[in-house]
Amino acid sequence: MGFLRRRPPAGPDFDVLAIPFTDWPGSVVVHILPGADGSCQGIFVRYDLLAGRGPAMLVGNLPAGSPGRADGVGRIEAQQLVAALGHEEMPEELGVEEHPVMQDDGLLIVRRVKYAEGRLACVEFDRSDDVQVRIVSWDRPITDDIFALLKPIPAESFGG
Questions:
Q1: According to the model, what pLDDT value does residue 151 have?
Q2: Domain of life, per the record (predicted)?
């Protein structure tokens, strides 16, 4: 699996995982979660559908120490997607199941998050560089095929 090396103004470098913009049939929005010291505490890539039909998927990349990974914060990618859809309440999280996925020649342990609202899908996994990746979608199941789509994207796409 390839990644884009992101060099924030402060803090450690980390790689961003995303679907190349040219492979997505709608619009793409990128948000950065800045730290108080100017470090990059997370990068979120939101994929919307054609004709403004709303967000289809959100991919979050959270390095070690990011406030988005703190206990009690919840999965902020799911919260962002639910808010972008105009829903007022976040569905209740029911549990997490671990699921092994073969990725190239390696085994990836994916955690599938179950919600009371069945239309919200969320998976997360940890990379070897201690960046946590979360993928959330609405009304679309997240199948193992999505992991094959995660590729490097050009640095200029992030303004770097």
A1: 56
A2: Bacteria
Write the pLDDT tens digit of every residue in 93-145.
Answer: 999 999 988 776 777 889 999 999 999 999 998 877 788 889 999 888 888 87
Helix runs in the chain, H state only: 76-84, 146-149
**Which residues pair with residue 80 across a beta bridge?**
none
**Which structure tokens are listed for 135?**
């993928």
Is residue 55 within 8 A of residue 84, CB to CB? The reply is yes
For residue 118, what are the contacts with CB-CB under 8 A and spacing of at least 6? none
Q: Tell me what the pLDDT averaged over the chain comes to.
A: 77
Q: Which residue has the tokens 């997607």?
A: 81
Sign of CA dihedral 38, 41, 43, 46: negative
In terms of Cα–Cα distance, which of 138, 107, 109, 110 is closest to 123? 110
What is the number of alpha carbons within 13 Å of residue 139 lying toward its C-beta?
Answer: 8
Q: What is the mean pLDDT of residues 2-15?
A: 51
C-alpha distances out from residue 47 to 18, 70, 96, 119, Å: 10, 25, 24, 17
User: How distant is the alpha carbon of residue 2 from its chain centre?
Assistant: 15
Residue 77's H or E segment, with its range, is helix 76-84
DSSP-derived pairing of the beta strands 14-16 and 28-34:
unpaired
